[in-house]
Amino acid sequence: MDRTGEIPEYLDELASCGSGWTSIHEVVFCEPGVAANPAIGLRLRPDAPLPKGMKSIVHNPRNPDNVPEPLCASARNLNPARLAAAVKEFGGGVPLVRNT
Asked: Which pTM was predicted?
């Protein structure tokens, strides 16, 4: 399932309620092999508003690297260097991490 448009829409939702990047704990780049295709995910801070349709997020200590499906989007043609540059420029200190 291609969820490419949903991450930007959620970022727009966060911005509209005044949260924006302050709600994001980490931006996650899942390289091929971890995911079927490269993917981008968001790990939220505990007090972050949830995207429409999500009622809760379960943090599993046995799988701390998990990114909930509604917060993960396919990124088939992603350039990792450009993603890193964008997060660095616009992310306000939010780290970019790689799931390898």
From this structure: 0.74
Q: What is the pLDDT of residue 4?
A: 47
Q: Is 26 exposed, middle or buried (0-12, 13-18, 19+ CB in 10 A)?
A: middle
Per-residue pLDDT of 3-42, as tens digits, reads: 445 555 655 655 555 567 888 888 888 876 655 677 888 8
State the first-to-last Cα distance of the chain, in angstroms, to the nearest integer: 21
Distance CA 83, CA 27 (A): 10
